[in-house]
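Hi,

Apologies if this is the wrong queue. I'm a grad student, and the batch job for Universal stress protein from Streptomyces cadmiisoli produced an output file that my downstream script rejects. I'm not sure whether the problem is my script or the file. Here is the sequence I used:
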Amino acid sequence: MTRPITAGVDGSQESLAAVAWAGREAVRRGLALRVVHAWRHEPHEAVEGDRETQARWVRGSTAEAVRAVTSRHSGLEVCVDVLEGDDVETLVEAADGAEMLVLGSRGHGAVVGFLLGSVGQQVIAAATRPVVLVRSGDRPVAEVGGREIVVGQEGGPEDSAGPLAFAFETAAARGATVRAVRAWTLPPVFAYSPGSLRLLDEAGGPEGYEKKALAEALAPWRERYPDVPVVEHVEMGSAGQVLLSVAGRAQFMVVGRRARRTAVGARIGSVAHGVLHHADCPVAVVPPV
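Support response: The file is valid. Your script probably expects a header line. Output copied below for reference.
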């Protein structure tokens, strides 16, 4: 069964940008688009209207988002679901049956970033499929002109299989180049064992070892997507800083997720958090496979 691309909408400009992006991506991949509006009746003086009034507003704002995307893509198959229930549970369930879930992001700042809100962070941490965050200022022009699909790689080939697969699929659909980024730092001297020192020496030193590891991780994806150009980028530094240093040339960024639960809620890992918070282009967070 073919999965649709699913976009969450809530009437905000950020979510309208997410639906527009999802529509373009669905056309590229030859997939259907599903638009989901998760809502709950809020019987509070700060929220105008009774249940039916709020329901009409929800249906109207969702219809507006759908009209906007279908006016640009007349042949696009679109289905709409207005679902009353918990925001996080509804969106996570919607993601489970999707190729990807696309959400709006409010942009930079210590308070207004969508990811830093409890709903966005919990959805990304719990989703079993990739979640894409799109900023309100996203424009189609940013998807052309030689800009790359930037993907972070770490560990062995299996550790980044999910992000690499998603990055190569996206690049193939767009005719774009993949820039695979592997960051590295020097470990403390006491962390070197005789065996690890031998491996480093055989690889030509720490940087040579990292280049070899990146090449091995990319090998199966190069074979599967022989027409996708690849740039191998190995640089010393923290993963988040190195990824953000090349964000200016990216039309899309892909990072892995390291979700864990803590006493203060869900956390998705410092690299994903930093890239989502600071990168201007859409960012996909891909769960472990």
